[in-house]
Specification:
The protein has 237 residues and is of the alpha/beta class. Helix content is 40%, strand content 15%.
Length: 237
């Protein structure tokens, strides 16, 4: 007897890294629900269902999980991937702007996991948090983003302890991923120890591993996927 396909919910999966994870999972026969606040003009691949949802909004997340429960009846994976970056000098960073970044990345992850806990426990599921190497290192004027990404790492290990052994929780910290199709120079590639800038598929394959049973002994861990950049010692000339 055929078993029902696994179901994964991905926040911020309408484009970029989240969309690549959705396409990768759907390509191996799994079902995916993408929750994104901006789905206008987005065509989802077969197996991926788009839902408009601001995952920083508590009521919207509750409605989302009620809909997933009613429609899919199971949830095996959750990828907390939504968010955006502000580059604002500290003196000009308003409290509202600070909170909007923390809410999109970090509070949304709390809201999603809390609302999905029952389904995830029932499925012995797996959660992936999309952090960043910016949780560990910074450019100027990125305080809200760095704080949100650092918070996601801490939230990951806290949840791994609270939800184990039913649910595993891990974090991916991507480095530079060309999620927007930028034009890249040879120097952009060459500065990476692996010789190239990252692709969305690099993160999709890692997320799929962490969501699936092959990573069954892994929880509370951070996986840095940055082409070696955070291991590179730089002495300015
Ligand atoms: N691209 C990189 O180099 C890189 C590096 C490290 C970490 N990341 C992280 O990976 C994730 C995906 O990055 P990306 O480059 O694909 O970004 P992206 O901007 O292409 O996609 C992010 C998606 O999140 C959605 N989103 C933002 N706020 C939302 C909210 N409140 N509710 C619902 N949807 C919301 C956006 O609409 C968008 O579709 C982000 O968390 C980002 O911080 C990216």
């Amino acid at each position: 007897m055929a078993t029902d396909p696994r179901v994964t919910l991905i926040s911020g999966g309408a484009r970029g890294i989240g969309a690549a994870i959705a396409a990768h999972l759907a390509g191996r026969g799994e079902r995916v629900v993408v929750a994104d606040r901006d789905i206008a003009g987005i065509a989802a691949p077969v197996g991926v269902r788009l839902v408009r949802c601001d995952v920083a909004d508590e009521a919207a997340v509750q409605s989302l999980l009620a809909e997933v429960t009613a429609t899919e009846r199971r949830l095996d994976g959750l990828v907390c991937n939504a968010g955006f970056m502000r580059r604002t000098p500290l003196a000009q960073l308003s409290l509202a702007d600070w909170r909007s970044v923390l809410d999109a990345h970090l509070t949304s992850a709390f809201l999603l996991v809390r609302a999905a806990e029952r389904l995830l426990r029932a499925a012995r599921g797996s959660v992936v948090m999309m952090s960043s190497t910016r949780a560990h290192m910074s450019e100027p004027d990125t305080e809200s983003y760095a704080a949100a990404k650092g918070g996601l790492l801490a939230l990951s290990h806290a949840l791994a302890i609270s939800l184990g052994p039913d649910v595993r929780v891990n974090a991916i910290s991507p480095g530079w991923i060309n999620s927007r199709g930028e034009t890249l120079t040879p120097a952009d590639h060459a500065q990476h120890p692996v010789g190239r800038v990252g692709m969305v598929e690099d993160i999709a394959r890692l997320a799929a591993f962490l969501l699936g049973p092959e990573s069954g002994f892994v929880t509370g861990a951070e996986f840095v996927a940055d082409g070696g950049m955070t291991r590179k010692m730089i002495y300015a000339p």
